[in-house]
Amino acid sequence: MSGTAEDEVEFPILCETCLGENPYVRMSKEARGKECKICNRAFTIFRWLPGRGMRYKKTEICTTCAKLKNVCQTCILDLEHGLPVQVRDNALSIQDSVPKDEANRRDYLEQMAGGLNTVGQQPDFSGRAQPAGREMLKRMARKEPYYKRNRAHICSFFVKGICNRGNECPYRHEMPDGDPELAKQNIVDRYHGNNDPVARRMMARSAATTKSGGLAQPPEDKSITSLFVLGMDVSITQDDLRAFFAPYGEIKSIVVPAKGNCAFVNFKHRKAAEEAAVAALDGCVVKGRSLRVAWGKPKPKGPQSELRQNGSAGDKASSGLLGDSSAYPSQDPTAMGAVRK
Is it the case that residue 127 has pLDDT exceeding 80? Predict the structure, then answer.
């Protein structure tokens, strides 16, 4: 094995989950102590205990491979969103440029190693060029670190019923209840974003959630022909919205409240609203800003609307009886409700 000086780092590239919740974590370091599971080059490995009751964790890939994909050296998940590489690359339309052949991969990494430390030459995984994809990643990402991922593995002897260690066993004594397909994953496929069962499951769940979210299935009330647009800012005007939605059909009106980050696009025909809703499933980007679109709600029907109608009729009647000089009777208790002249 041969190692490079750039892999002899002082601290690994880790996500918050793998690092653990203990702010005083202690790490052991071994220079060129292991081969990277992607490029097969020797690199500096780190080993630490992320917290009480957790298992010891260690780095699996070198820093060069981690920088090329912007992933954690241990879990091989994206550092910004904590999602699999396949999910991120699919949302941001990123192609895997790392060769899978060992000889070509070694030459590619040597060429890219110098550019990774140069400002402006690092790969861009921020998603600025794909606002719609970035919004999708934000919806799929966890809000807080998932420390349960650092728990000890399940004891295979306990599953077979032959573990005799009892409480001294460092592994978990519980039966696996997850999807067996998730156990068929490896670091190389996860790194390149190919055949990752976790990524496939997350993308299928996201697609089902998007379809059941209301846009793909129009409301049963055929009188609803309006779409609710959220995520607006002052730079987006009615003309910008009209230019985006006009190709799908005739627009009756567009309402943008003075104070708020939303808008209402009212179509003249229901078919035009349905076509615009289906198009919004692939992303609604106006002036480089990703907007969220949902179906409008029907007008309220029931006791409240009837009371509102009766109230308006009563106001008209009272205005006719009392005259136009005063719409309300006097609030003076001595006036006995008489109208002040």
Answer: no
